Amino acid sequence: MIDSHCHLNFDIFKNNFSEIINKAKKNNITSILTINTKIEDFEYHYSLIKNYKSIYISTGVHPEHVNDCLIPSVNELKSYCTYEKVIAIGETGIDLYHSNKNINAQYKSFENHIECSLETKLPLIIHQRNSENEIIDVLNNYQKNTPLNVVFHCFTGTKKSRNFCLDNNYYISLSGIITFKNANNLRETIKPFPLNFILIETDSPFLTPTPYRNIKPNEPLYVFYVGKYLAQFFDISIEEFEMITDNNFYSLFKKAIRYKEILYEN
């Protein structure tokens, strides 16, 4: 299985990084995509994973970190796309959970990430929180002219978001939230979604899935339990679900090279 979205550079992993990766390998996790959320963190973040085959990274600025004084330019984002292991742009989007104080800066940042995705042909990772209509409007403005390669990470959207993704051949990525007892609405929403457009993720160190929900931090190894739950939910074998979602990952993130396992090489 593949953890298509986590944050390996967080301080909580700093003292046992190699152990985190080894535990994921033992749980048959064959690839990991770690998400960069601040420009200033990129070099350190990249240094953590550069010697691991089958661990990849994105470049982007999380909307929570954007303000009038910090809006990444297209060229700034593009400058990191030449790195071998950069396979995606983001996470980016609009987050209005706390306030809409920086809404204009978030819009500009989001648009710059989209432009970067179009110019580099690297797929776009979307963060959406209390901003369904805003994100759909922005993506529609681009989508009508040039098709975009998109995944809505940690998908928790409504049927409107689901249908928007279906209409545009966008992927959705499901996290441990899908296993929570209070996620009935989400389960109902994703039930008709085609399996060949679904990814799985941990979003670690957040959102540890059931049956380990109270264990913190979440780790890439726990993506297995997201996959196991969804295989049962869609009534297919875990082996078939793993094959489908792995293939989806490499179909979307075309720059990623498929290896049988994660390997460390000096």
How would you concisely characterize the structure shown here?
With 266 residues, the protein is α/β, with parallel strands linked by helices. It has nine helices and ten strands.
Describe this structure in words.
- The chain is of the alpha/beta class and 266 residues long.
- The chain has one domain (2-203, 222-257): Metal-dependent hydrolases (TIM Barrel, Alpha-Beta Barrel), CATH 3.20.20.
- 36% of the residues lie in helices and 17% in strands.
- It has helices at residues 17-26, 42-49, 74-78, 103-120, 132-143, 159-168, 184-190, 223-233, 238-252; strands spanning 2-6, 31-34, 52-53, 55-59, 86-95, 124-129, 150-152, 171-174, 198-200, 263-264.
- The strands form two sheets. An eight-stranded parallel sheet has the order 1-2-4-5-6-7-8-9.
- Helix 6 links the parallel strand 7 (150-152) and strand 8 (171-174).
- The longest helix has 18 residues, at 103-120.
- The protein is globular and about 45 Å long.
- The chain starts with a strand and ends with a strand.
- The mean pLDDT is 97.
Gyration radius, to the nearest Å? 17 Å
Number of domains: 1
List segments where confidence is low: pLDDT < 50 over at least 5 consecutive residues. Answer: none
Note the main sheet. Answer: 8 strands, parallel
- Termini distance? 25 Å
Write down the overall mean pLDDT: 97
Number of helices: 9
In CATH, the architecture is: Alpha-Beta Barrel
| Oligomer type | single chain
User: Looking at the structure, what is the overall shape?
Assistant: globular
